[in-house]
Design brief:
The chain is an alpha/beta fold and 337 residues long. It folds into 2 domains: 88 residues, Winged helix-like DNA-binding domain superfamily/Winged helix DNA-binding domain (Arc Repressor Mutant, subunit A); 183 residues, 3-Layer(aba) Sandwich (Rossmann fold), CATH 3.40.50. Helices cover 44% and strands 17% of the residues. The protein has 15 helices and 10 strands. The strands form 2 sheets. Strands 6-5-4-7-8-10-9 form a 7-stranded mixed β-sheet, with helices on both faces. Strands 1-3-2 form a 3-stranded antiparallel β-sheet. Helix 12 links the parallel strand 5 and strand 6. Helix 7 packs across helix 9. The longest helix has 15 residues. The chain is globular. It binds S-adenosylmethionine. S-adenosylmethionine (SAM) binds next to helix 9.
């Protein structure tokens, strides 16, 4: 593939691309997007009054939403463009509202990316708490993980070859969308989700939506310190390794091996980095997201992940390709001998 030939407008579009992102973030953070999704068209003045926003600023925002084709204008009333009513309604099953809220939380961190590149350290953030005492952004984070996982989880159980009578550990499963969906799709599967205690309310919130939610167990703990239960036939480790440095990844994969039965499978889902022929920019950009947010985290290549598995004596490690067609998330699996 020949290198892209850049034009001035391409550079310009990329340089100010965050303006459009921030416009979407504002629509979601102010509740304006959810209001339009749930109750239909409204004028800027009505939106400002209902949501307690500044009327002049709200008018400027809705004009920009219209210009970005996020909103449709009929007379003086604005509504969300087709498709967005479900994508931006926080309560819709395929909503990405919380994903957008989480991205809004990340904006001030990404603004200091160059500092991280200079220092090699994550961006310093003031410790803040929400009104309910939770760390700032935690609800957005876990619900964003949920939003993203809901787009991917359906149908993956068959890809993993899960079967009745097997036991599965969704290790660091967060809100548990994968473990819960795998249980729904595999009658007779015994599923356990393990994550930090802070994830449990979000697991419970999600479990309530699933047919077999009440049967899926949640173990609250720290994978670096606590027992993972088991033994299991399958360990599903999704989007966890990138938060850790290589040494912690090796330890975590060795710990996964220790709770697998002989012949059991470890499936890793990651935004797998391709340093030679990237098909999608997302994994490399996600690696930058780990640079600004974590001490040692980064994106890994399939060779890195298979290397971690080999160090833990796994056999048959293969890169199994994107989780879904066109998805930047991909699967790597290996077996415990
Ligand atoms: C990016 S999220 C992925 C969540 C889920 N596996 C998914 O794919 O949607 C990473 C998860 O790792 C969990 N985690 C991070 N450190 C952990 C630790 N020391 N012990 C247990 N869970 C941890 C976080 O709470 C979070 O749920």
């Amino acid at each position: 593939m020949s290198p892209k030939q850049w034009k001035p407008e391409d550079v310009s579009r990329l340089a100010h691309g965050f303006w459009a992102s921030a416009t979407l973030h504002a629509a979601v953070s102010t509740g304006l997007a959810a209001r339009l999704a749930k109750k239909g068209p409204a004028t800027a003045e009505e939106l400002a009054s209902e949501l307690g926003l500044d009327p002049r600023a709200t008018r400027i925002l809705v004009i920009a939403l219209h210009a970005l084709e996020l909103a449709v204008k009929r007379g003086e009333a604005y509504s969300l463009a087709p498709g967005l009513e479900t994508l931006l309604d926080p309560d819709a099953p395929r909503s990405l509202n919380n994903m957008a809220l989480h991205m809004a939380d990340l904006m001030p961190v990404w603004a200091h990316l160059a500092d991280s590149v200079r220092s090699g350290k994550p961006v310093e953030r003031p410790e803040k708490t929400e009104d309910n005492g939770e760390p700032a952004g935690r609800a957005h984070f876990y619900r964003a993980m949920r939003d993203i996982a809901r787009q991917q989880a359906t149908g993956t159980a068959a890809r993993l070859g899960l079967a009745s009578g097997q036991s599965l550990l969704d290790l660091a499963g967060g809100p548990g969308v994968y473990g819960l969906t795998f249980a729904d799709e595999t009658p007779g599967l015994s599923a356990t989700v393990f994550d930090l205690p802070g994830a449990q309310p979000y697991f419970q919130e999600e479990a309530a939506r699933h047919a077999r939610g009440a049967e899926v167990r949640f173990i609250a703990g720290d994978y670096q310190k606590n027992d993972l239960g088991g033994p299991y036939d399958v360990v599903w480790l999704s989007q966890v390794l990138h938060g850790e440095g290589p040494e912690e990844c090796r330890k975590l994969i060795a710990k996964a091996a220790s709770v697998l039965k002989s012949g059991g499978a470890l499936w890793v889902q990651e935004f797998v980095v391709d340093t030679e022929n990237p098909k999608h920019p997302w994994p490399a950009l996600f690696s930058l997201n780990m640079l600004v947010n974590t001490t040692d985290g980064q994106g890994y290549t399939a060779a890195d992940i298979c290397g971690f598995m080999r160090d833990a004596r796994f056999i048959g490690c293969v890169f199994d390709g994107p989780t879904r067609e066109g998805s930047p998330a991909a699967l790597v699996r290996g077996f415990k001998p």
